[in-house]
Amino acid sequence: MASTSAFGLKDPSLLRHQGFINGQWVDAEDGKKFSVTNPATSEELGQVADLGLAQTKQAIEAASVAFKTWGKTTAKERHDLLMKFYHLMQEHHEDLSRLITLENGKPLKEAKGENVYSSSFLEWFAGEAVRTYGETIPSASSSLRNVVIKQPIGVVSILTPWNFPSAMITRKLGAALAAGCTAVIKPPAETPYTCLALTELATRAGIPPGVINIVPTHSNISEVGREMCENPTVKKISFTGSTPVAKLLSKYAAGTLKKMSIEAGGNAPFIIFDDADIDAAVEGAIACKFRHTGQTCVCANRIYVQSSVYADFASKLAEKVAAFRVGNGFDEQTTHGPLIHDRAVEKVQKHIDDAVSRGAQLIHGGKRLDGKGSFFAPTILCDVPKDALVCTEETFGPLAALVKFETEDEVIKLANDTSVGLAGYFYSRDIGRVWRVAEALEVGMVGTNTGAISQAVIPFGGVKESGLGREGSKYGIEEYLNIKYIAFGGL
């Protein structure tokens, strides 16, 4: 196990290597551990307890017992605890950001941005805790009163991805805690340390034992995930990840008809019309496509450019991308870090090779970078055919694939020709076109003349096979509440 000094934390006690059940840090019952690797150096950071099925059941039971008390706390009490949690995230900003860079690879500046974004969910849902209003409904009978109240749904299973190891935790956990639910969390095996550090801070904030339980695992992912979905004590599942895994978990949950929030795969179109501000569109494409080296679910995956501005956009984009500096996230000169692992590198290369074999032109990048770590050169492809893999699959890497189009109707059909629909983007200065295209795109979120859409206050989620439900915003807490109707008669 790596020493705490190797992490360089100001507060070494934030570094945890165990699971967390009913307020106690626990090793795996069989003593197993799994290795966590720094994707920038390919070196082991440390080893974390590899929990299994039995301890997952224990965590769910602990959450169930804790719910009997936590579910009856007042909204003001939950508000105050979430705000303490929020302030602790602010206080430990540097350490939390450092952990993100170490295990995820994103540049430290970007990691700091994630910590700010992540903590904003705690602040937002602290406020929402005291706004879970019910209502009265006028009755046709003078002796009857109709009242609607909202109650916490119960024990929640939370399964999160590695690309935002902090924000994907708080976006779900903040809403669950604010609503009065208790949680069992399976953090990603690639990035467990951030989740464990957040759990330590939640404990310091005063969140009671059993309210938050953490089940890190690597070798037992299948059985742990299944138990978190099938266990009848669990009443709600929140998952972010790929569409195939989302479908599998949905099958598991169907046996007990659990409520689910799913944020699954994306294949975001990014459209540049001929009336767009091209310089602004280039900046937006860079922010959208190359954020976290292309490893976000709302990244631009297909970049459609109208023919009359195609050459201008491609040239300006290539000039900007050529100035990128790929490297270790702790290097101040680094603009883009590594991919999470070699499998991600292989997928990007596969998409490039496929597109080139179909006639696409490579104008920048296109290969893995030499040396340690999972680094890949930011890449631009022009003249990408519409049937290339990069247009039909989510790349999740630093590959900008440019496709030429002629008309508005044509590009809307191309943009919507996918089974998923998470986010979509376009640039235009025609107000009529802005409304038409925004309404026509079959996605849950649209960025118009912007490449950045994520905020705590907005409803994050998709349509089609990109998932169910919404996270963040005033709608996010509703996913963790049951609506109960009470009829008061005999008045």
UniProtKB/TrEMBL annotation:
<dbReference type="GO" id="GO:0004030">
    <property type="term" value="F:aldehyde dehydrogenase [NAD(P)+] activity"/>
</dbReference>
<dbReference type="Pfam" id="PF00171">
    <property type="entry name" value="Aldedh"/>
</dbReference>
<dbReference type="InterPro" id="IPR050740">
    <property type="entry name" value="Aldehyde_DH_Superfamily"/>
</dbReference>
<dbReference type="InterPro" id="IPR029510">
    <property type="entry name" value="Ald_DH_CS_GLU"/>
</dbReference>
<feature type="active site">
    <location>
        <position position="263"/>
    </location>
</feature>
<comment type="pathway">
    <text>Amino-acid degradation; 4-aminobutanoate degradation.</text>
</comment>
<dbReference type="GO" id="GO:0004777">
    <property type="term" value="F:succinate-semialdehyde dehydrogenase (NAD+) activity"/>
</dbReference>
<dbReference type="GO" id="GO:0009450">
    <property type="term" value="P:gamma-aminobutyric acid catabolic process"/>
</dbReference>
<comment type="similarity">
    <text>Belongs to the aldehyde dehydrogenase family.</text>
</comment>
<keyword id="KW-0560">Oxidoreductase</keyword>
<dbReference type="GO" id="GO:0005737">
    <property type="term" value="C:cytoplasm"/>
</dbReference>
<dbReference type="InterPro" id="IPR016163">
    <property type="entry name" value="Ald_DH_C"/>
</dbReference>
<dbReference type="InterPro" id="IPR016160">
    <property type="entry name" value="Ald_DH_CS_CYS"/>
</dbReference>
<feature type="domain" description="Aldehyde dehydrogenase">
    <location>
        <begin position="25"/>
        <end position="486"/>
    </location>
</feature>
<protein>
    <recommendedName>
        <fullName>Succinate-semialdehyde dehydrogenase</fullName>
        <ecNumber>1.2.1.16</ecNumber>
    </recommendedName>
</protein>
<dbReference type="InterPro" id="IPR016161">
    <property type="entry name" value="Ald_DH/histidinol_DH"/>
</dbReference>
<dbReference type="InterPro" id="IPR016162">
    <property type="entry name" value="Ald_DH_N"/>
</dbReference>
<dbReference type="InterPro" id="IPR015590">
    <property type="entry name" value="Aldehyde_DH_dom"/>
</dbReference>
<dbReference type="InterPro" id="IPR010102">
    <property type="entry name" value="Succ_semiAld_DH"/>
</dbReference>
